[in-house]
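User: My instructor asked us to take a sequence, write out its structure as tokens, and then describe one feature of it. I'm not sure where to start. Here is the sequence I was given:
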Amino acid sequence: MAKPFVKWVGGKTQLLEEIREKYPQAIEKYCEPFVGGGAVLFDILLKFQPKDVLINDINKDLINTYSQIKNNCENLIKELLALQNIYRNQENNINKDFYLSKRERFNSLRLENDSEKLEKAALFIFLNKTCFNGLYRVNSKGQFNVPFNNAKNPLLCDEDNLRECSKLLQNVQMNVGDYSECKSFIDENTFVYLDPPYRPLTETSAFTSYDKSGFSDEKQIELGNFVSEISKKGAKVVLSNSDPKNTNEDDNFFDDLYSQFEIERVSASRMINSNAKKRGAINELLITNIASVF
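Assistant: Let's start with the prediction itself. The structure tokens for your sequence are:
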């Protein structure tokens, strides 16, 4: 059973049961404009074997990693095993220096764009497994800057899962870019799942930046317009986002933006907060056009 090969903030593994209830009976064409860790992607590939699939993300290093798993899996496994062997045979204080050196190497490779794609993919997974909370955050210069997590013995190379992921990805098209670039692929036969950067519940909760350009309320509104547009095409759509009413009962931002759609509030555990006392169950939104399309 293939599963996400990275830990991803906001990953949907824990909400799969609720999201599955929104799936159409059959899926032959699938699009995921914000693929992230791919929990829904792998679930759909396993259950429906769609013939036509497009995944997209603005994070070029994430898509490069998907591509290397698809096209160069055995060599990627070799790279990860080498990193894992070094990591597991060192003291933790040395591993922190090792982590920082690999983070620096990853950032230098990012500046070189299309060079050393295999090494970048291996470092992407290595950093994800050894950084704080599996967080992907970049600074204003676009440099990955997440600190070390002091993990003692992480599984850096899950060989069996990587091979299973590679099998499922063989017929998947991959694109790096804005979600709007998926528009031409989407038609009345497409099931679309969107998991955009969540709207922060408070100003202080917006400490992560997935992309240096951020994702403002204006961009959330633009996304709402995109969802309306593909719905008019006849696409079946499910979208996730944060629920502003967790912190402000009077905040109707998404209720107003998606007023023509069905909005369901579901419970999820939020583990990203650095303060353990502030982690726990919180409502998230599942927004669908089930009433207008199905």
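For the description part of your assignment, you could build on this observation: The first strand starts at residue 29 and ends at 32. Try explaining in your own words what that tells you about the chain.
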